[in-house]
Structure formats: structure tokens, C-alpha cells
Please model this.
Amino acid sequence: MTDTIRFRLNGEETESHSDPSARLLDVLREEFLLTGVKCGCKEGECGACSVIIDGQLANSCMVALGSVSGSDVMTIEGYSKTKRYQKLSEAYAEFSAVQCGFCIPGMVMASEALLSHNPHPTEEEIREGISGNLCRCTGYSAIVSAIKKASENGEGLW
Amino acid sequence: MDTISTPVKKLDHDLKMSGAARYTDDLQIPDMQHGKVLYSSVAKAIIKEIQLPQLPEGYVIIDKNDVPGENFVHIVADDCPVFADGVVTYIGEPILMLVGPDLKKVRELLSQIVVVYEEQTPEIDFRKGETFFYHYEYEKGDWQKAFAEADQVLDETIETGYQEHIYMEVQSMIGMKDPNGKITVAGSLQCPYYVHRALQKALGLGPDKVCVIQAEMGGAFGGKEAYPSILGCQVAVAANKIGKPVKCVLDRRDDITVTSKRHPASMRYQAAIKDRKITAIQADIRYNSGAYITLSPVVLQRGLIGAMGVYTFDALRVEGKAVKTNTVPNGAFRGFGGPQTFFAIEMFMNHIAKAVGEDPLPFKLRYLAKKGDETSTRGRYHFHIPMPEMIEKVDKASGYSQKYQEYKNQSGRYRKGIGLGLAYHGCGFTGSGERDMIKGVVRLHKLANNKVEVLTAGTDMGQGLKTTFVKIVAKTLGIPIEDVIIKNPNTDFVPDSGPTAASRSLMVVGKLLNRAAEKLKEQWEDGEEQEVEEHYVHPEFMIPWDLSVFQGDPYPDYSWSANVVEVEVDTLTGVTRVIGAWGMYDVGTAIDYRIVQGQMQGGFLQGIGYGSIELMDVNSKGQIRNNSLSDYIIPTAMDVPHLQTDIVDHPYEGGPFGGKGAGELPAVGGAQAYISAMESALGTNLYKTPFSQEDTLEFLTKGAK
Model:
């Protein structure tokens, strides 16, 4: 069984029998039906497929399944059950920062990756933190304001 | 006290935030097959032969011979085939679809197909093209006399490039066939009834035998107005043939290569000037339609109507051509023909001002249209135009007038610039379309539990229509928004309220809902199931539009914007940073202040992208040169500062609670503000958008072309 890749997915031990060279994005969407992970380009440019691997933000379209062996993978489906997510969701709602929503799961993962490394980011740091995630709807202002607000309201969470 | 403008939590927030929203590619349907389209790789050719690989069981080719009805996609005209019929006319024209159970295998087989072409010489350059799909002309006043008596004539050609939508969700559609032969198409689409009509034609079926359902939509910006009719017909024909569900999700590179974009334009403007005043303007405008008509006539009409921008001139002549080329057909994109001409007239006004020795803003102020003025097309501006107060506000917020003086005659490595761009957007479908073609219908269905369902064909593509429609109905009925239900449109259940396009939904369909809710309120009976229906009523004050002479009121009212952009140019590298962006908008009363702010900011940034980094072109073979997100660049969060936008509350009496068109407006004024800022920083006149880093360096080394 050399082809079995074992890893933690949203907090639970799991395994995949897909080709180790398969894109993690495809495995998450097709094998685990985690369709909150979006595909916008498959070239690592748009960030819609962002997940957190061992605490680091990653474009899952650029990650081979085999490389997450033994790792901890978090997608929006797992993250949306956390208190931190609730804080972010409240803040995103307060600024109506969700328009078409397609970039949002990735943007939320980028928000978490940023705040977990830097709980009190400046506006510049927020912009840098989400600069790998394209949004075509909002002009980013509402998203940046929401992340700022979440960091203020989520004192102690990050 | 809460008003209609008081923001509420968007109704689809939780679903989208948590990743639970199901977009087309997320839908799981048993026995779903995957389709991939083979596109033409040459711009003009006769197809001599198609060599197919051996197809394993379950893999099927779908082509023109499988189209049971007419092999044309009904859009404006019926000239665009569902699948190519012996000839191809642009790179990206669909030839056939390969369908099968495994997507990887479908891709592998598709790559083995060989098409033998007999190539012909394509027409690529729309500046030179002599085949016109449409050709319009109109004039007002004695422009010939003005030019004959002018003591100065300014003559410039101003150009705008392609712009690609980059909706984050690519074009996606699923076709299904039920045991009775009824075809259902579900997918990412703006206009359910456009697709519905196209399906009837291509399938040769009656209206009750086809159904269109909108899935959650990951952005559109006009890009899913016409193309879903093409892709919808393709998956429908495939599902019809094999009797199984067929999903087709474009790859991003295919999406950029084969779907419509903003029409590139070349616009010659001439001004007759006497005693330092403009006495007449002529505009000769070309839009690159591409290989098929799709939406070009309507896009061109809107562009020509706006050719004089926000100004009133007594004498003018406008001529416009939709040029046929062997390039990908262009179509709707937020602003719909407006961003091209509004860019041109704003740059031209800058240049005229400088030519007569004035600064742009005071010069422009003297020509601003105002209530009661005759429009370019001999209609009337029926309502107050709040531009002077909007300009005052944006000037104060940005420091435009003062900075414009400060930034004259700079030297040194870093140079700042500030620019102002003015624009309007006509609200609603152009001309008499609302009355003669769309004839929108809405229904409200009250359930026995006193909840009310909104039934329209309006689609939420991110602009917040679900929330604003519900707010209008709830407010009118005086019930909580929790008691109003709205779902994604399904043509089996919703009436044809028209397309979600032309900044018409809130003003036109929203008004119908407002009236329907008033009617329901009068008839309300607790605990009873009730239904009310409302039909479009044309505003009586409008001067009838006559397309044959291009005269009348093309729109009942207009939305207005004043935009300022400030830049800093590094003259060593050519890199330009946007260091400030301010927008002031009149969209009537905001039905939700935060939703409107989100629309303004998002559109403004698209406009700034159109001016700065969103460069796209075709090569001499007609191939889009940059078809990926790696080399067609859209702004990231780091490319702009916080966008300072606001609105003036200026109710439109014909709209629901005073609301009017909003969605497209902010995309019409951004590029001219950005390029005007570049003119200010570089101390020169500029004649095109986008103006890239390379253009800046070239200017700094060689001077303006």
C-alpha cells in the first residue's frame, strides 16, 4: 500500500488512495467532496483554492497530494466550525464584504493565516496578507476593513 | 430611524462565507458526464477534415449534426453557430464537444483530435476592417458651420484596449434531459430567459420543454450575459443526444481565449473651437465586434449615446461602426460600451482645455449637462444633475484642485499626478427596449403562513440583488425581511422580468416589485394564499426613442460619477503606484448603503485596472496573447489604497424608494481618472488606455507618440 497517503484533514486522521501526484485541490474536491475549496485558475495565481497546511497558507492547486503525507490540512469546511471563523464571519458581514463569494473561502483562509501569525496587523500588512487572493468584486476595501475589525474584536482568539 | 438605505446582513452571507454555497462545478448529479469543447486554433479557415481517435465506450462526439433545431445561438441576431459548420472564423470558435465519464480521459482524447484546415487570410485589425455589422450616425445643430467658422480645430485619435472580466468562477454549465424529453440547463448565467430562448431555437423545442436554472454565480460583470447561451446550447445538445447529465466547466485559459471581452475601440474626435470655446464636436468611432454580432449593436449604441460624456454641446456629429474581424466576439462588460467613449471624451476635454490655456476642471464645469438640457440625441435631461455638488465634494476629499497645481512642472525621480474623470451611466435597457422587447413581469406569491416569495428572473451574481429585492418587498409590505423568500431563478416558476443587465434590475424590476407589494398590501388577507403580478409601465415623460434616426430619450434617467485618482510614478522604473482614489456617486437612493458602497468600490477598481495594468491584445494571427492570470494581471489588494467612495442621496422618483441604476456606473469613470493622473504626473497628453509601465518608460525615454 505504498500509494496510501495519510494526513490530518480538518482535524481528523484520514487517508487517500489517489495518485500521489494528483493536485491536492482535485483530491479535496472530488474525493472528499470539500467543494468549499474553489478552483479559479489551477495555476497558483488566484488563491481561490487556498487551504492551510501545517499553519501555512497554500494554493492547493499547486500542492501534490503526496507532499501532504503526515501533514495537517485545514479547509474552509473545518475552519468554519471554529470561534475564530465566527469572528471573521461577523466582521465580513458587518462590511458586506462578501459579494459573489467565490474568492471568499480562500480569502477566509488567508485571513486566518495572517491573523494567526500577526494578530494585530496594520492595513498594509493585511493587504500584503491577502495579496495572493484575487477578488474581482469588492475592490478589497470591505475585506481589509473586515479583517481589521475581526482582529480588534477577536482579542485573545489569535 | 431605519430607512431603506440602512444596511442589513446580506441574505447569502453565511452560505458563501462558510463555503457551503454550491456553484455549478460543486453540484453532484448521479451519472454526470464531462464535456470539453474543441476550439478552432486558426482565425479563418475551411474545415477540410476532422480526424478522431478511437473512442472508448461511453465517449461521444457532439457536433453540428447533433443540433436538433437550428444550429445558431439566438442572441441579438442568429449568426453564431452552436458548433462550427464547415468553417471557422476566429481562434476559439467551438467545433465539437467530447463527452465522457472521466474528465482526464476526455482531455486526453480531445488532445488527440486533428483538424485539417484550409486557411484563409483573416481580418485582424479592426482599425482597417471594412466590414461593418452595424453603422450608426446622428447629429445635432449646425456642426458644419461651426467647423467652417472655427479658429482652431483639435483632431485626435484615442484608443481603448480589451478588458477581460476575470469573474473568479469560470463559465460553467450543466445540461440534463428528463425521461419526457424536457431539457434543463443549470449554471452560471445572468439572464435565464436569454438562455431559455436560445435553447428553444437550438433544440427545436417549445417553451414548456426547456428549463433554465441559475446556480450560485461567482461573478459575471456582463461576461455571463451572452456566453451562457452558447455554452448552454452546447451542453443541452450533448445531454439531449446521450440522455445523461453533461457538465462543461471551462479551463481558465480557454475561458479567457474563447469568451467575450470589452470591445477595443478606436475613436477619432474633432473639436471646433472659436474664441477658446467649443462650438462643435465630431466623433468617428470604431468598436471591434469580433467574428459575430452577439451583443455588439447594443454595446455600440450605448457607446455612441455617451460620446459627448457628461457635457452638453449644441452642435455635434457622431458616427459609429461595429467592425467585423476574425477575432473572438466581444460583448457585455460592466459599462457596456460606455467606458470607451467616456474615456475618450474625458481625455479629449483635458486636451482641449490645455489647448486653450485652461486647467481641465474649470473648463469642464462650463460644459456640464444640467436639468432641462437637450441631450446629444435630442432627448431631455429630465431631472436634476448633481454633478457640481459631487465634484465639489470629491475635490474637497481628494485635494484635487490644489494638488493639480502643485504637480505641474515636476522634476526628480518620483513624480506625482492627480486626475479627474467624470461619467454617467444611462439606467435601464437602451432605447425602447424595456417597452418593446423586455416587457418585464414580476410576481409575488404569498403563502398561507403569510410569508411572501419574490418571483423574478433577476440573478444575484454578487451585486446583492437577493438582499435588495427582499428589502424593497419587505419595506413596502411592512413585514420583516425574514418573512420574504427569494430563491435562484428557475424558468419553470419565475416570470420573465428581463435580463440581469444594463443596471436595470433595481430600478426597473425593483419598481415592479415595489408596485406588486403595494398591490398585495391592499389585498392582503391573513392566512390566505395569494398571488399578484405586475407588468412594466413605460415612463410617460420619456421622449420616444427612434433608433432609425438615433433620436429621443434612450434612458429615463442617468446615474452620475466623479472620480479622482492620485498616482506616483517612479521615472527610473516606470512603476506607477496609485496612492489615492476617491469616488462620488449618484445612484438615487441607496437601497442598501453598504451594498452600494461595495458596488462602487469594486467597479472603481475595475476601472483603475482598465486604465493601468489590464493589458490584453491579439497577435497578427488573431490569437489572444495573454490568456492566463499569470500574464493578464488584475489588481491585488496591494495595488490600491483604501478606496474612498461615497454617494449623494438624490432620489429618482421613478425608482423604488428613489433607487436607480448603480452596478455599472463605477466602472465607467475609473480609467479616465487614472490616465488623467498619468498626464498630470508626466506633464503630457495621453491618448490611450491602458497606459502600462512599459508605456511610461517608453514615454520617458522617447516622449509621447
Summary: The longest strand of chain B covers residues 277-290.
